[in-house]
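new request in #modeling-help
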Amino acid sequence: MHRLELIDISKQYPAVKANDRVRLRVKPGEIHAVLGENGAGKSTLMKIIYGAVRPDEGEMRWNGEQVQVASPAEARKLGISMVYQHFSLFDTLTAAENVWLGLDKSLSLADVVARIREVAGVYGLEVDPLRPVHTLSVGERQRVEIVRALMTSPKLLILDEPTSVLTPQAVQTLFVTLRKLAQEGCSILYISHKLDEIRALCHHCTVLRGGKVTGEVDPAKESNASLSRLMIGAEPPQLQHREPNLGSVVLSVRGLTLAKEDPFGTALDAVSFEVRAGEVVGIAGVSGNGQQELMAAISGEDRRAPAGSIRLFGNDIARASPRRRRVAGLHFVPEERLGRGAVPTLSLAQNTLLTRTGAVGAFGWLRIDAIGALAESLIRRFNVKAGGPGSAAKSLSGGNLQKFIVGREIDAQPKLLVVSQPTWGVDVGAAAQIRGELLALRDNGCAVLVVSEELDELFEICDRLIVIAQGRVSPGVATAAATVEQIGEWMSGLWSRDFAASHAPA
Amino acid sequence: MDQFALLVAATLNSGTVLAFAALGLLINERAGIVNLGAEGMMLVAAVAGFATAFHTGNDWLAFGAGAVAGAVLAAAFGFLVIWLNTNQYATGLALSLFGAGFSAFVGIRYTQEKLGEQHNFAIPGLADLPFVGPALFRQHPMVYLAIALTLAIAWFLYRARAGLVLRAVGESPESAHALGYPVRRIRLAAVVVGGALCGVAGAYISVVSTHLWVEGMTAGKGWIALALTTFATWRPARVLLGAYLFGGVTMLQLQLQGEGVQISSQFLTMLPYLATVLVLVLISRNAAFIRVNMPASIGKPFFPG
Amino acid sequence: MLRLEARPAPSRAMSLASPLIALAITVVIGTCLFVLLGKDPLRGLAVFFVEPLKSVYALTELAVKATPLLLIALGLAVCFRSNVWNIGAEGQFIVGAIAAGGIAMLAGKDTGNWFFVLVLAGGVLGGMLWAAIVALLRDRFNANEILVSLMLVYVAEQLLNYVVYGPWKDPHGYNFPQTITFLKSTQVPRLYGSYRVNIGTIGALVAVAAFWILLFRTYAGFQLQVGGLAPAAARYAGFSARKALWSALLLSGAMAGLAGGLEVAGPLGQLTPHVPAGYGFAAIIVAFVGRLHPVGIVFSAILMSMFYIGGELAQSRLGLPKSLTGVFQGLLLFTLLACDTLIAYRIRWTSSHATAPSSAALPASQMQSQTQTIDDAPLGPVVASSNLPTREST
């Protein structure tokens, strides 16, 4: 008998059908993957199982009996527990208080503290219950989330993209925990789009595409190619790699030390690296180690960098405004699309004005036609699916908006393009196109700096890699000479041991 | 010495109004909602309380009426802001403007009236102690209630699980919703309780402090109470102290005016408002400090699902 | 059961209809109020909506009332679109009036008729100065502009009282708290005959065009609006938040001060403690009901003036309290905010069955790619995706 069974579950949102007659079956003690690219409907399906969203049609069976899960509290009573991708933790409360909130009322806070230590010990998850959450690293926060889920003695544990915030080593530790749980009879639903992980960990896999189930397979018997075909209908797109044609140094960062502005942020400590024309340099690292702060210093959103610490073609831009940096040839694509890279309620045409001022005339007069024409050309050139230059930015899908924003900056013919999380939340087709555009830029002699949490992506498009950890940056290493394990260790800050052993200086 | 004791007593009295209002606003803001309608709620409650006291002669019923008036207005505000997700600042302003007009409208009937007996309260025994007696123990029971309320709210926020839930909702309604808490209902409860307390404050002004009804009689106390919650970084004990501080400034300025000090009366009247500005400047200077202490979701709309 | 369902795109039709629906609701409530007070509702409505439009004289009086509201609301619209919450326009109005009055008193018997320009300039500078205090405290100390600007309203009132009870009191005024009546040379020229409407009204209409151009056809206006809609995007683009703060406040302070100067150099002709008529607060409502759009503000200013005049007429002709005006104004804003919800959401009847769609849900694709907006100033109000009128770049 299956522990969980979904039969013909459907959910319609105003503009899209997120789930279309989805069927899913999970046995007790089974680690079951739900595979799909961004936008396939995985999150919605999990929310339905967890009771945060109600389906329009369909039936859910728990241990053979039909159930209606009307709220997360009811899901918890059944024994369903969820660990979110974007954690639902409260920063100013302690770990124990956070866990307490996630449990139903019976225990006292002191009991909870004791139980946390117990559970953490059994499953090998290091958690200090008395520390406020805002002092914890991302990996530690995830452990709090997992402990919170485990303390409800779940029969079904749902994990939504759990490894995006972990180093490769931490991923292995997580897998050990999950396998132990499964052995004890807990079913696990593992949401991911990472094919290697699914093949390594999961017993069974349901593939979603465009809200429909395209296959139910045993991942051990499949290859990346076959899984990819189920996931996106084709093989993973191949990118063209040419030999780098290195030019002079474009960006030079030396001794960038920056105190943190946000009390919950990370300080930068003597960050130093270079980017030359015609190469793609990637910055790897687990989220929360200073990437945001480094990007803000380079883009000009934070102008407190020490004078001379950031130079473009030798000129000091450490204190320059974003506009001056753009004039000098530095363009930036931020990781947040809506709200930072584009204004959600303004049209695509108006959004070009954020970084492109060609259509601004004397005395600041706006030439409306020119603005519209620019947006139109970006839409065409970068294959953006949108209603037109007048569509609001928030009406585009994640992938299309990202194509527009990246396109807006590429079209400006930058000498240095800095991109943060280029394909986060973007469907595979758009992701491939964006990565292709970055490589094309680099082939044309532009310098490119990419920050990404997806190691696969970095290994695919970068010529050189550096790693950021706790606000410090490692020496550079050629991608061809680097391994995932090594980079994984460096992501924990452990590069000084290896540095002695012959690696290319930054 | 006697003068000073009386000044202390008057300070406690004056500060109690601000204390009730600011504690109500604190509960609101802890849930993430800013209610700029405090001034309006207090005015409507003041006229409601006055009318009730006038017709029934019962002060406690008057406080009840004030609380109900505040709660009803707050509920309307809460519905708009929580379920319809209207902009909190604009809606609160609308409430204040409406409250000012509505209270003036209803209060016309009572403008020339005066409430009857003036009670004198005294705690037996303690009231006869030298200095502390007249200073502390001859107050209206509401003054002691304000202190008790402060302690109760502090206990609630930091010791009770329900208070922890409230703080969590104010910090991140999305996370609380993900955990299954009825975020909107909790917020509405906070808003209504806050409104009731503002109502009590309003009724206190007309029924106890002045025994009159005058149009616009709160003279900005609602806004000062809002500044107070920020000044006190959302902690109940600090709110009470701040309220007494402001009460003191108000009393001092009245004292100085009465003694014919050589400064024009208008400048003395300005003192509480200038003090509010000063206090805001002092506390806001350290942006990082505020960010760590402020309930993170203040002012932001929440969309469940 | 009624549920709210998100529309795929904001409804333009609703954006225009919402103020009308709000007005209708306010009228209905008003009618009930009239009945409750024992007055004929039709006469009551006539006094508010028909009388102010009946004759040339009535129309000019409407213009006289609407002009300051229009001027102040234009400045406030820029402020609110920039997410700067200047609630203390009333204080800037008062200080503008004081400054204008001070200059007016400098006129002598032989001063030319151009002097009113100086008087108005004084008003502008006074208002700007008062607003500059708010800007400075927010810029240097992060102090919340809502509370500071409000506190300064009370301070400004006391300042006015001080000058009219003290140094500027007319020695021949029988000890009433008022200044001398200002000389003719300080008066703003009237438009026609004995009607009170003056060139200030023309100026206000010119200002409407100027503000439209500023908001929708200049880069500066664009920068201000982005600062209000998405502070993180403004920071990314390199738009100076400091510049936006100061421009918005100085501009709205100037407009409020100008309105104050116009009142003093126009209908009032002197300074008294009754200079503050609540225009600074009513203008907030005018700005919102006009959708923060210069053209919309013209209509809402006229509407608000009708409420004012109607209130006065209701008092003199029907024996109704003047405070009715305030009730209607507050009610109008309240209902408008509620009706604005319909721009982004539809109302649906659904049976409360277990499989009912969840309310106010965002499309899955948007939820997955929508990241949280980063909020900026810790004490400044964050507008995020709230219910303010949608920005149209018409």
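bot summary: The first strand of chain A starts at residue 4 and ends at 12.
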